[in-house]
Design a protein that fits this description.
With about 90 residues, this protein is mainly beta. The chain contains 1 helix and 7 strands, in the order ββββββαβ. The protein is elongated and about 65 Å long.
């Protein structure tokens, strides 16, 4: 595996920082072993993101990656909201 390193002197080595990019996927695919759906926004390393953009599998975006929604009703005993039916007008 080829790695890039810079020398700081006195025998210290430091790896170059990994650049990331936010992209919006144009189709379903697997990224880093996880299934991702079309239209979702992911943050990916610069090299892989540019490859997907060049092959029109993704487009660059500045949006934040989607996060899983949490269940905000956890811990509530019962809801005060009343749900009507179509028969009731």
């Amino acid at each position: 595996m080829l790695t890039y390193k810079s020398f700081n002197g006195a025998g210290e080595e430091q790896s170059s920082p990994v650049k990331t990019m936010k992209i919006k996927l144009n189709r379903d695919m697997r990224i880093e072993g996880q299934h991702t759906t079309a239209g979702s926004t992911v943050e990916l390393n610069d090299k892989d993101a540019r490859y997907l953009i060049a092959n029109k599998l993704a487009s660059e975006t500045t949006a934040k990656p989607k996060t899983k929604k949490s269940n905000k009703s956890v811990g509530l005993d019962k809801s005060d909201a009343k749900v009507g039916t179509r028969d009731e007008s």
